[in-house]
Amino acid sequence: MTIVDPAAGSCPVLLPESERVLLGHGSGGRLSAELISEVLLPGLGPAAPGGPLEDAALVTVGGCELLLSTDAYVVDPLFFPGGDIGALAVHGTVNDLAMRAGLPVALTVAYVVEEGLPLTDLRRVAASVGAAAAAAGVPVVTGDTKVVGRGAADRLFVITAGLGRRLPGAAPTAAGARPGDVVLLSGPIGCHGVTVLSTREGLGFESDVASDSKPLHRLVADMIAAGGTGVHALRDPTRGGLAAAVNEIAAASGVGVELVEAALPVPEPVRAACEMLGIDPAYVANEGCLVAFVAPERADAVLTAMRARPEGAAAVRIGAVTDGGPVLVRTMVGARRVLDLPLGEQLPRIC
Amino acid sequence: MTIVDPAAGSCPVLLPESERVLLGHGSGGRLSAELISEVLLPGLGPAAPGGPLEDAALVTVGGCELLLSTDAYVVDPLFFPGGDIGALAVHGTVNDLAMRAGLPVALTVAYVVEEGLPLTDLRRVAASVGAAAAAAGVPVVTGDTKVVGRGAADRLFVITAGLGRRLPGAAPTAAGARPGDVVLLSGPIGCHGVTVLSTREGLGFESDVASDSKPLHRLVADMIAAGGTGVHALRDPTRGGLAAAVNEIAAASGVGVELVEAALPVPEPVRAACEMLGIDPAYVANEGCLVAFVAPERADAVLTAMRARPEGAAAVRIGAVTDGGPVLVRTMVGARRVLDLPLGEQLPRIC
Amino acid sequence: MRYLDEYRDPVLARALLSELGRVVTRPWTLMEVCGGQTHTIVRQGIDELLPDGVRMIHGPGCPVCVTPLEVLDRAMAIAQRPGTILTSFGDMLRVPGSRTDLLALRARGADVRVVYSPMDAVALARRTPDRQVVFLAVGFETTAPANAMAVLHAAALGLTNFTVLVSHVLVPPAMTAVLRAPDCRVQAFLAAGHVCAVMGWTEYEPIAAEHRVPIVVTGFEPLDLLEGILMAVRQLEQGRHEVENQYARAVRRDGNQAARQAISRVFRVTDRAWRGIGTIPGSGLTLTDEFAAFDARRRFDVGHLLVREHPDCVAGDILTGARTPLDCAAYGTACTPRTPLGAPMVSAEGTCAAYYTAGRRAVPPTGVS
Amino acid sequence: MRYLDEYRDPVLARALLSELGRVVTRPWTLMEVCGGQTHTIVRQGIDELLPDGVRMIHGPGCPVCVTPLEVLDRAMAIAQRPGTILTSFGDMLRVPGSRTDLLALRARGADVRVVYSPMDAVALARRTPDRQVVFLAVGFETTAPANAMAVLHAAALGLTNFTVLVSHVLVPPAMTAVLRAPDCRVQAFLAAGHVCAVMGWTEYEPIAAEHRVPIVVTGFEPLDLLEGILMAVRQLEQGRHEVENQYARAVRRDGNQAARQAISRVFRVTDRAWRGIGTIPGSGLTLTDEFAAFDARRRFDVGHLLVREHPDCVAGDILTGARTPLDCAAYGTACTPRTPLGAPMVSAEGTCAAYYTAGRRAVPPTGVS
Amino acid sequence: MCLGIPGRITEVERCDGLRTGTVDFGGVRKQVCLAYTPDAGPGDYVIVHVGFAISVVDPDEAARTLAVLRAMDGVLEQELGP
Amino acid sequence: MCLGIPGRITEVERCDGLRTGTVDFGGVRKQVCLAYTPDAGPGDYVIVHVGFAISVVDPDEAARTLAVLRAMDGVLEQELGP
Ligand code: SF4
Ligand code: SF4
Ligand SMILES: [Mg+2]
Ligand SMILES: [Mg+2]
Ligand SMILES: [Mg+2]
Ligand SMILES: [Mg+2]
Ligand SMILES: [Mg+2]
Ligand SMILES: [Mg+2]
Ligand SMILES: [Mg+2]
Ligand SMILES: [Mg+2]
Ligand SMILES: [Mg+2]
Ligand SMILES: [Mg+2]
């Protein structure tokens, strides 16, 4: 039936059929970066934001320094150990504000609901949004709800936007890392991604791990109180994991980074799941930790401040900023290798 | 096979199987209102916004009066005469800010993309977001993109949030209408909804109508310049149409309204499509007009200011606010009938 | 729009109302048979403007309202079968069966789709050869030619995945049933213009003669209805009981021959249950044996369905004009469009829903002020 | 994790490296056959730490990389048939065929799903009786028992909607092919521990004897690899050429009898094309006639497929160890994981991709500093 | 029952053996089955129900009805005075 | 090739006529086919590849290998001094 014409282009990625959005474009890795830089930002034209891609945008209105951020949440399953899509949507946006030293002032929430969703599920997610917002001390000031036909969405998407007020005394930015900076990580990695993966059809496994979803703005406030302008850059390593976060900061700042693999806090079940699936914990998503690039003279003070808060109790030093070059990892046997941006989605390997 | 047990509950709506989200819950009508008041707001708990449901929320930060709004756009088709999902997402949020006298300062945009969307479509939507934002004079300061698997979304959803600065000199609110107010409409109704309906499978018809999608903040600025605090309430009659907008304002303000059916500007093809489908143009969605409740002594000045702008060139007086009671329409033959909130989705009728 | 706008002229409407006021000398009770006419009357508030004593009661002419519960339950049972696409007109989707409605079934995963025309269902069957497409074919004589053509066309195309669940009803037997009801108050009928566009009006002549009621074939626009009422009242005042044709621009005495032929080829007359009323002999259409292969009842065995209406609902009296919705204890309280207890509250052209939507409850609007 | 963490101890790794340094007296070239071992070596930078002169070259042991283009194109042709679900291991989905890959096909609407185990594909077939579930069954001897069991289990369940597209390969013939290549530089092999866990090592004894090469059955952790290298180098230094077992905790001389029986019941040996290398006699497995009903090739006629590899790609030389990726002109420029020209750039355990991901390009990291 | 609206035929064709055509309803155009109005052609108005023309509008009858109504209005105006 | 990781059997059962069981990998539990390790029971470690136990870990051999390596390290330490 099908005869593959050997005269046809031999480079598959340039064929027109590839000119479609792939799941990997949403992975937070290289494909995501390409989608943003080659499709979305050029499309926006003059209305597009300038400068490096930040977790939140700085907007000055009448002398007030404000931060604005948005994220869409499409997690499957809606409910998982350690959280649900509603809490995630609050924490994610609160955290994106926090990564630029923003304290949350107000949230908006939009729901895209698939026809047929049990009302109890929607009520439960709304309650979780409310509880997470209350716990973070931020009101949900407005919202929107759309219902789409059966099969036109995967049950429920939650999209939040956040308005923040910038904490005085610091201005962390993705471009702020400098050679010599100490790289700090606020807690263990991989829990969120492994928790969600464990429910996937065909991968199904049980584990004792729960999502780390939590708000980090109070941790950031304490870090800035301790480190002031020495807190150069902050990022929450969500999609694409620690590898993507560190690569993004390094690229935006024009520096290199060297991490120490043995220093990365990877909980046992996360490591086990990653071994099983053949994926690297550094590429797995987190929703409740941050990576900080701090001036060396402030690093100890910041680390102490972090450890004084529950969400930073397990904070560790994981590496340092170098003059340039790629993000490197010192391996367990003492060699170095590049820790690159992931390409697309993490797929389980057989070998 | 199936035996319907006559002893089972005879009231179908209380059966558990109805406890699911229906398409009608997204219609902007009574089901939508119920979903918000009975599921979403109670869920939010203490984090929920108080007061009437407004197009945008007022947030005061460091003495600045700011407005915040969000909307999710799920329109099918993505591209239609007069606009596309990208322009719509900009105009809709700009307009929601404008309905509370907000001038847009910054927008955020989130995309939820179905795997397989042609990149050209995404590029075209992004370009339309950019062009619409530039035309409205507002930057897109930050964004987010998620990709979901094939069949987990209907090609593309666009979710915008907007930050606005309140125009000095007026404070329109959904609760602001007062008996005696004049009801003004900025332009013809039904064009957007009919344009979109005309592409529906099974309803397919061709028409000369195009969406009215456009930004209204400059119109509002001129209205407020002319009417000041006499501009009591504004609403853009989107989902649920004029009927929903007027009912919502009447309910929030605790007043009645009497509209004159003959005064409603319904373009010929909109009327024709509505006749064909057996639906009422007052229930059809708009994306480029507003309804204003204005103190009688300012009404002429506001109407003149509206007509001086292209987006208000066809502005008309369509009724007046009464002391209480339902929203009434004076029919063509001179009787009155209630113009209620629609229930759920508008379905074509055979009779 | 030509042939619509002219018949909505408010000046002429006032002229007709004045003329009606001059003609009327005593109370008369008229029934418009058709739900579409009910819709116009209530939506425009025409009945509020009629001279004192001229009263409109609303007949059983809403196909959505009179479709039996058993048919709805059957449609829903079929829709739940895997591989099936159930199609119908938009207004059928909200009608409650015994336990749920088609919109709620769709939300639970059934493939239920709105079509504008039965031919769209045929086209869908052609496009999806691996699915069974079922069209829930309801309607009066007006819709029967369309549904007949869908079957004829599916047969011509040799489709084996298209069937119809037929629940067609006929107007004249229903009018006779209304007239034979012991508490019948109807003194004249406005006959449904579009039914007559297909069938003509010869069937009405024996009814008018036997029951001594004027019958006026009437259109759907405000002026049509006012003129139809005027013509009927004139007959009543003059003691006549004839069939007259107000809707002459669209209706001929013998109707539409081509359409009638298609109906009689595809369908035969049968007894039919009317929701809320009960069975009326010879009041329905069913497929002839020639087209039995297109009968969804035969194709899909969903067993015997036992059904029961809500005990508080007086839909039967509403549909025969014995009562108005305002006479129903449940109206506006237990029974609203959001929580319908009976079919007349469901579709926009159902009498109870038309009343409710027009606000005929807490604050009854008054006439011209 | 027990039996993993112990074999990652950095102190013992340094001890092994020191010992190796003491043992080596002259340059030696070793090949690890297995892609999983390549992955550990490159990811941990083990080869960077080896004493001068000890050089690892990477063998053809990546099942994803050696799956012929023809098989991929066939899988994609099958995936495009309506009603079909194509399943495979995650790393097969990104491998480019002649025109596209399975992930891109999925984006265009094909139903392509990742499974963790072939048994998951069987379970899927059971759950979706109206769909044809095809499992793209690739792998070495390690995976063959699992794929065999999937066929046996589907047969036991009487499934008629489950088939496998088999492209199994065998290690010993590939090692022989490497050794027979005219420019072969391999002086010793690390044999793949998990292959041997299934098959044992008796097949390797004649190879070691005939070609006078040491073969050390080796595990996958850093200490395993270092010890395997040390054992092989000791043999080389001592002029021995035996089969030794470093991975004694998991591998026995005769392998796993139950697993071998299942393989030989379901599969028979056949000639097999290796992507980038060409056909190697007796180097593959195919279904026996008893299980022909489960053969996707027979079930789905997608015609004769003509395929051609990219002319710049030297994958054959990479896979046989004749060259390293750094010797390929396209490496890192025209050919990257984003734009792979050949299979070794596609899967994480492909040699070219392993090099690229570890950053062996613009800035080659140096050893311990 | 039976929503039917008048529209003007702009084109007639055959499609799958059926007489069909385009009908314009004040700026909205739809494909309609014309099998039941075999004599109607472009320019004629038909009443369309669920995608089928069920009747051809008779312009003379339409004019006559309106004339009667307008006359009635004229009589009224005369009676009430200008 | 052939990602395989060691895990501890915690439960053995039969499912659809197959020997299966739960294997714990450091806090992650997965159902695994045990048909090819007929003698392995709870407490035993098996090497699992694509959902199949392909080999039982021999604890004595494992200990022996490690002892050799540790001895090598001890020798080194001795050589290099404390
Ligand atoms: S109001 Fe409701 S309960 Fe009463 S007759 Fe009408 S449908 Fe039945
Ligand atoms: S680098 Fe690319 S082109 Fe070169 S051998 Fe490897 S896969 Fe082939
Ligand atoms: Mg972030
Ligand atoms: Mg964000
Ligand atoms: Mg974020
Ligand atoms: Mg909204
Ligand atoms: Mg879904
Ligand atoms: Mg609005
Ligand atoms: Mg809004
Ligand atoms: Mg809006
Ligand atoms: Mg984001
Ligand atoms: Mg879709």
UniProtKB/TrEMBL annotation, chains A, B:
One Pfam family per UniProt: AIRS_C
Domain of life assignment: Bacteria
Gene Ontology biological process: protein maturation
Alphabetical list of InterPro entries matching this protein: HypE, PurM-like_C_dom, PurM-like_C_sf, PurM-like_N, PurM-like_N_sf
Domain PurM-like N-terminal: 54-165
The PurM-like C-terminal domain, residue ranges: 178-325
Family the UniProt entry places it in: Belongs to the HypE family.
NCBIfam families named in the record: hypE
Protein name per Swiss-Prot or TrEMBL: Hydrogenase expression/formation protein HypE
Organism: Actinoplanes awajinensis subsp. mycoplanecinus
Automatic annotation (TrEMBL), chains C, D:
InterPro entries, per the entry: Hyd_form_HypD (IPR002780), HypD_1 (IPR042243), HypD_2_sf (IPR042244)
GO BP terms, alphabetized: protein maturation
Pfam family, one: HypD
A molecular function GO annotation: carbon monoxide binding
UniProt keyword terms in alphabetical order: Iron, Metal-binding
Family: Belongs to the HypD family.
NCBIfam families with a match to the protein in the record: hypD (TIGR00075)
Protein's UniProt name: Hydrogenase formation protein HupD
Organism (species): Actinoplanes awajinensis subsp. mycoplanecinus
Automatic annotation (TrEMBL), chains E, F:
Highest taxon in the source lineage: Bacteria
GO biological process: protein maturation
InterPro entries for the chain: Hydgase_assmbl_chp_CS, Hydrogenase_HupF/HypC
One MF annotation (Gene Ontology) recorded for this entry: carbon dioxide binding
Pfam short name (any one): HupF_HypC
Homology family: Belongs to the HupF/HypC family.
Entry protein name: Hydrogenase assembly protein HypC
